Amino acid sequence: MKLIDLHVHSTASDGTLSPQEIALYAKAKGLSAIALTDHDTVAGVNECMKKGLEIGVIVIPGIECSADYYGKELHILGYYIDPDSSVLQNKLKELIDGRSKRNLKMLDKLTELGCPLTLEDLEVDCVPDTVFTRAHIANALLRKGYITERKEAFSKYIGSNCPAYIPREKFTVKACIDMIHEAGGLAVLAHPMLYGYSRADVTNLLRGLALEGLDGVECVYSTHSSDDVAHLLQVCLQLKLFPTGGSDFHGDNKPQIDLGSGYGHLKVPFDILEAMRKCLGMSY
């Protein structure tokens, strides 16, 4: 069976493999296709697509955006977007500027707490145009010896409700979906079982998001149980949404999660990709 992975991060955001290395690793893992879905950026997409074309791996241009839904943060994946869309680029600049302001405020807070960091400290081992996230701050704290393991950064300093945490400005879910559609893509809710909802609440959430224009749901995911997947697939049928799947691979920043296989049992069939392309009227 041909397998794919539609949720992958590179050094363009908070992954540890470059976009080229992602394509090469996908080839080594025997995957037929991947989607590069970095946070709030498409900076690595063209590089990854070029390498994929050279080595025979399909690379879908993608993105992952954090969005506000009535006070709840949800993650929206975009697939088959045009990375050079002027509408997309202008909107992403707003998001990236917001991240930059947030990062500076968090660094100020950390200095007050006795853990001074500079922007240069975040840039170690990063490529140009990297979108810096809390993962980069955690790595810098570890390198500087302020913490002994990465998870301590989130439990002690930069996790929600911690003293150096600053909320980030986000678009609404509707604005994210519209942005993805305007860039020619499909909008998908990422990892729906990670938001702390019951299955009944997830069903209601998806009903609401379908009215906002959502196209699909990430049903197959590294932490979803078989029962979760079955439930989400049923909801997709009811709401006429298409299913997707991915590992949420971040390289060494999430070392337990491997590309294509997640925690070891993930399998995302190529048929999913074919259904997505059909939605867009695309053919091979």
Your description of this structure?
The protein is built from 10 helices and 9 strands. With 284 residues, the protein is α/β, with parallel strands linked by helices. The chain has one domain (3-91, 169-279): Metal-dependent hydrolases (TIM Barrel, Alpha-Beta Barrel), CATH 3.20.20. Strands 1, 2, 3, 4, 5, 6, 7, 8 and 9 form a 9-stranded mixed beta sheet that branches. Strand 7, helix 9 (226-239) and strand 8 form a beta-alpha-beta unit. The longest helix is centred in the middle third of the chain and has 27 residues, at 86-112. The protein is globular, with a radius of gyration of 18 Å. The protein starts with a strand and ends in a 5-residue tail after the last helix. The relative contact order is 0.16. The mean pLDDT is 94.
Question: How would the blueprint of this fold be written?
Answer:
Layout: E1 3-8, H1 19-28, E2 33-36, H2 45-55, E3 58-69, E4 72-79, H3 86-112, H4 119-122, H5 134-143, H6 150-158, E5 171-172, H7 173-182, E6 186-189, H8 199-211, E7 216-221, H9 226-239, E8 242-246, E9 268-269, H10 271-279
Parallel strand pairs: 1-2, 2-3, 3-5, 6-7, 7-8
Antiparallel strand pairs: 1-9, 3-4, 4-6
